[in-house]
Structures are given as structure tokens and as C-alpha cells.
Design goal:
- With about 475 residues, the protein is mainly alpha-helical.
- The chain folds into two domains: about 375 residues, no CATH class; about 100 residues, no CATH class.
- The protein is built from 25 helices and five strands.
- A five-stranded mixed sheet has the order 2-1-3-5-4, covered by helices on one side.
- Helix 6 packs antiparallel against helix 7.
- The N terminus is likely disordered.
Length: about 475
């Protein structure tokens, strides 16, 4: 091989497997591509941000965020099984900018964009800039991440802080530097304050770090000090929340979950949703992930072991917890870090066969092209339950003195965001079980009943649904929202 050709391969390969950084003009290509990906992420996450109406969980976010900081904390202690950090930030945003679908979703969208350069650095630290840029592309065009970057919930914020934690985690694994371990602990605490389930990823990382460094620790106990400081940082910043979490976990597991996925369905559905809600693409991604694992074992067994350990620990814990608490794939947002980095590692197989920068470009293009079928309907039609349209229709049917009964009662939250009962003197009533329905006395005015499939979550026996079918007349089924009258 000529010297000229050899230089060309080094130029496009960027980071050699021996870890040496090759400074060439390709440096700017990564920055340029990262900027393009970040801009693309901004467009995909902010386009039509306020188009869909708020659905149930988003309306709950609004209801909680309108409370004071102290009341938000008290709400978490009582009925809300989510940490308060996101609601506190939403409270500030609403106070400054007003209240609308766009404003409520602004924070998640910003975090969804901000995670792109962070995950590039994570992938770079994990292996090299090729892995970093491919992982960033997967994040940019992911339908799963776009969807939850346009939802007024804490998932994208949790993912951002987890990615920041992972960046310093990989740095700490290499250097065992106190500063990196402490920063990892701090960002882990922020991720935990964003969503309780981040705790699973944090614990998984900490256990793996102990396993990797067990030989060094046995030789010199002082080796464990930075690790201990990281743990102290996390506990110190999260202590109030940890205490609350233990109590909330006890309440949540006191009864069997009435919604969500269980067992293997958690794993299968998580792969499917993270891959873009397509079985074909899921199969492709899983194959690439497996190839990436094998390639990782060839070049760096430590990193490969981390991928395998992470995916096994995350799913084993989720499998067993699914029988104790409601489990939904969006709770596992952090899984995309492991999954997409594993997929990114698969580039090595093709690169070894034909060393060319086009391999990297093709993988970036792949993530964009396979997501197009998702974008077309997503940005052109309602993809969330349309409480805005339903509430508008309901307001034209009711008159002063009418009752509107919500089954279950929390359906009042999204309805009231668009149609307050104070507008025309309608009375709102919450009902969860048959006894609640029996208490409602019909007068000369109409009694309307609003129900969704959530009725089975609060009354798994189906008693409320049977009561409604026998005692009311169905007026309309508005995209899954049933309106009946008596």
C-alpha cells in the first residue's frame, strides 16, 4: 500500500483503534456534521410544537405546574408519582411566558435539542468521534425521541441529564479522577430529580464501575475514594427525594398495576418504540446492535462488557418491576444511549471491509431516511388524543345546570384546560367506581358522561363501563373519548 493511500485511510478513519488522535482537516467535518444534526434536531422538535392538543398527562403537568413550589412538593407526596424538578421549571416558564401548548412543551423540546451535542461527546468518549456522530444522528432523527421531546413531560430532561452523567462516567472510568466522579454524581442526581426511573441506570453504572475496578480496589483501597465521593454527591443532592421515593415505592407496589406492560412485553415494546414503531426497522436495529457488540469485543472488551451489562441489568430490573409498578417504554428513555451507541459501533465492520468516510455518512443518512415514513403523518395530523376538539364540541352541547361526569375523574383535567365549567354554569363531577355513579341524582337538566379506556385502569372489573352501557345513551366516540347522556 502506498504512503499516499495509507494517509488517506488514516484521514477518513479519524481515531485509530490504538486511541491516538489524528489531527487532519476531517476535524472540521465532524463539527460541521454535528452542527447540521443539531439544527435538524431543532427543526424536528420545534416544528408544529403546539399543533397537538394536550393529552391527559400533559394537562396534569399544567395543573401541577400552576401550583407554588411548596404545593408542587406536597402534590408529589400525595398523588403524583414523579419528582418535582420538571414541574418547578415549568412553573417558572409559565410565570414568565404564559400558558399554551407551545410554552408547556418548550422545555422538553429544548432538552431534546441540547442532548444532541452531549450525546456526540458521550459516543466520542465511549469509543471515538465516528461512534459519537453516528449516535448523535440516531438521536436526531429518532421518532421515539422526537415524540417525547414534543410532550410536556420530564422524559427528555431526564435523558439530557443522564447523557451528561454518562459523559463524565466514561471519563471517570478511564482516569478515576475525583472531579469526573463528583460531576457524574451531580448529573445523576439531576436525572433522578427529573424521573424516578433514572435510578435504574445510575445504579447499573455504579455496580459496573465497581466490577471493572475490583482488582485495583483490592490492591489499594484508596482507589475507591473517588467512587465513594461520587456516591456521596448523589446521595447528598438527592437525600430528600430518596426518602420520599422509598415511601412512594411502597404505596405504588401495595397493589398490582392496572395498566402498563408486563414481563417480556416490556422488553419487546421498548425495542419496537425506540426503533421507531416499526417491526422491520426494529429487526434491522437489533441486528446492527448485535454486530456492534461483537465489534466492541474485538476492539475494547471493557466497553463491550459495559453495553452487555447495561442492557441486561436494565431489562432484568424492568422485567421484575413490571409486576409491581406500571411499566411503560418511555420510562426507559436512557436505554437509547446504550442501544444507539451499540448500533453505532457496527460501523467498524463495514469500515474494516472498505475504509471510507462514506460509511459514516451512509449510517447518518440511514437514520434519516428510515424515519421519513413516521414524519409524514406525525407532522400533518393529530397524533395525541384531541381533547381540544372534544372540549369544543362538548361546550356546544351543554347548557347551564347540566352535569358532566368524568369516568375516571381525572379526565376532567384535559377537558377543563380547554373548556372550564365556569364558562356556562356546567357542573363537573368525578366518578371512579359504580357507587360514585349511583350517587348522581338526575334533575331536569342533562347528565353527560365522558369516558375513555382509562376506566378499566381505575376499575379493572369493568363495573363502571357496564353501568354506563346500561344507563346511558352513547352520543359520540370522538377518537377514543366516549360521550354519552342520560
Amino acid at each position: 500500500m502506498s504512503v499516499k493511500k495509507q494517509k488517506k485511510i488514516i484521514h477518513i478513519g479519524d481515531n485509530l483503534d490504538d486511541g491516538r488522535q489524528i489531527k487532519t482537516q476531517s476535524d472540521s467535518r465532524y463539527i460541521q456534521l454535528l452542527i447540521m444534526l443539531t439544527i435538524s434536531a431543532f427543526v424536528l422538535r420545534f416544528y408544529n410544537l403546539g399543533f397537538n392538543s394536550l393529552w391527559l398527562d400533559e394537562a396534569s403537568t399544567n395543573l401541577i405546574a400552576l401550583k407554588s413550589f411548596g404545593d408542587i412538593w406536597q402534590t408529589m407526596l400525595g398523588v403524583e408519582f414523579n419528582p418535582p424538578l420538571f414541574y418547578w421549571m415549568e412553573h417558572i416558564l409559565i410565570s414568565l411566558l404564559g400558558n399554551s401548548e407551545f410554552i408547556l412543551r418548550l422545555l422538553p423540546a429544548l432538552f431534546g435539542v441540547a442532548v444532541i451535542p452531549v450525546i456526540y461527546l458521550v459516543g466520542t468518549e465511549f469509543r471515538n468521534r465516528n461512534v459519537g456522530i453516528i449516535t448523535a444522528a440516531a438521536f436526531t432523527f429518532s421518532p421515539f425521541l422526537i415524540l417525547y421531546s414534543q410532550e410536556a413531560r420530564s422524559y427528555s430532561m431526564m435523558l439530557f441529564f443522564t447523557a451528561c452523567a454518562m459523559l463524565f462516567y466514561f471519563k471517570a472510568l478511564k482516569s478515576n479522577d475525583i472531579k469526573n466522579w463528583v460531576v457524574f454524581g451531580a448529573f445523576s442526581a439531576l436525572a433522578f430529580w427529573s424521573h424516578f426511573y433514572a435510578f435504574v441506570m445510575i445504579v447499573s453504572c455504579l455496580i459496573y464501575a465497581m466490577m471493572v475496578h475490583i482488582k485495583e480496589i483490592k490492591k489499594d483501597i484508596n482507589y475507591v475514594k473517588p467512587f465513594i465521593l461520587s456516591l456521596i454527591t448523589f446521595i447528598g443532592l438527592s437525600l430528600p427525594l430518596i426518602i420520599v421515593t422509598i415511601d412512594l415505592f411502597g404505596k405504588r407496589t401495595s397493589t398490582a398495576p392496572t395498566y402498563g406492560l408486563q414481563g417480556m412485553n416490556v422488553i419487546v415494546d421498548t425495542f419496537n418504540q425506540v426503533s421507531g414503531y416499526s417491526e422491520l426497522i426494529t429487526a434491522l436495529f437489533v441486528i446492527l446492535f448485535i454486530i456492534g457488540i461483537f465489534q466492541a469485543f474485538i476492539v475494547d472488551k471493557t466497553r463491550a462488557t459495559f453495553l452487555v451489562w447495561s442492557i441486561i441489568s436494565i431489562f432484568v430490573v424492568s422485567y421484575f418491576l413490571s409486576y409491581k409498578i406500571p411499566m411503560i417504554p418511555r420510562y426507559l428513555q436512557f436505554f437509547v444511549i446504550i442501544f444507539f451507541m451499540g448500533i453505532a459501533m457496527s460501523y467498524k465492520l463495514l469500515f474494516n471491509l472498505k475504509p471510507s468516510k462514506n460509511i459514516i455518512y451512509c449510517m447518518v443518512l440511514l437514520f434519516m431516511v428510515i424515519s421519513v415514513p413516521f414524519y409524514i403523518p406525525y407532522y400533518s395530523q393529530e397524533t395525541k388524543v384531541d381533547w381540544r376538539g372534544f372540549s369544543k364540541g362538548l361546550s356546544t352541547m351543554t347548557k347551564p345546570g347540566d352535569y358532566v361526569v368524568f369516568v375516571p375523574g381525572y379526565l376532567q383535567t384535559p377537558t377543563e384546560y380547554y373548556y372550564s365549567n365556569k364558562t356556562n354554569g356546567v357542573m363537573y363531577i368525578s366518578a371512579y367506581v359504580v357507587s360514585d355513579l349511583d350517587k348522581i341524582q338526575k334533575n331536569n337538566n342533562s347528565v353527560f358522561y365522558v369516558m375513555t379506556g382509562d376506566a378499566l385502569a381505575t376499575d379493572p372489573s369493568g363495573g363502571t363501563m357496564n353501568w354506563l352501557s346500561k344507563n346511558t345513551r352513547l352520543i359520540t366516540n370522538y377518537k377514543g373519548i366516549y360521550l354519552s347522556v342520560r
